[in-house]
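Recall that a protein's primary structure is simply its ordered list of amino acids. Everything else, from secondary elements to tertiary packing, is in principle encoded there. The following example makes that idea concrete.
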Amino acid sequence: MEVRFSTDPISVKRMTTEELRKMFLIENLFVIDDIPMVYSDIDRSITGSAVPVDKTLILMASKKEMGVECFTERREVGIINIGKEGIISTEGKDYRMAYRDVLYIGKGKKEISFKSLNDKEPAQFYFVSYPADESFPTAHASLKDAEFVSLGSQSGANRRTIYKYIHPNGIKSAQIVMGLTELEDGSVWNTMPPHTHHRRSEIYMYFNLGERDLVFHIMGEPENTKHIVIRNRQAVLSPSWSVHAGVATKNYSFVWAMGGENQLFDDMDGIELTGIA
């Protein structure tokens, strides 16, 4: 497990491109037959993935970084499948996971494993975990179960649908809020106009991009923005003080996950475009 330590807005202003990428970008996800993870002291999030091909993968706690016996001893996890069909097993029960299915696993579940139904076309599980002070039941949802809202316009190149899976009106959790945003063909901007939410951090994972495509992810304080170039199936950490928006070379999808003081999706501090620099 890789450990990342956060920094303050003043330091970010002075960072080089390489330093920004090292601090906030998670490049090496979706490794075959492995579970790479990044532990961040930004709200103590853990971001990871599992691509089981030749074996079943087991989600284990890293005792050095976590100090516990099992992964969800003191935390919860939200998992989405962005690949072919697979199965997640926990506490003796199997959950069949299709493309864009989400599984929430609450605090205290001792066994979590991943496998694919077809090793030639494996499942690709992406997960985000935050600490939990309360235990909620394991819950599975498909795209049709999610609460959704369509936003944006064709003229603004930002027509998109937001699907909410783990949230107060959907799958219940201690603190994690998680969902999926999909942009329509011809739309390339997300989270416009931009916002911050000082009460929560957020993690974006961009996917459905071609090998030659990329996203310019915008971050930093509104009056002093930076950008990070992100490619397919890479994630970026967004501290609570930072804006988080993006524009790409084509339409795309991204998984968003939040943790912090509250679970209110609309608790945002909007920023006028005239205040962006």
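The domain at 2-275 is CATH 2.60.120.10 (Jelly Rolls). The longest helix spans residues 17-24.
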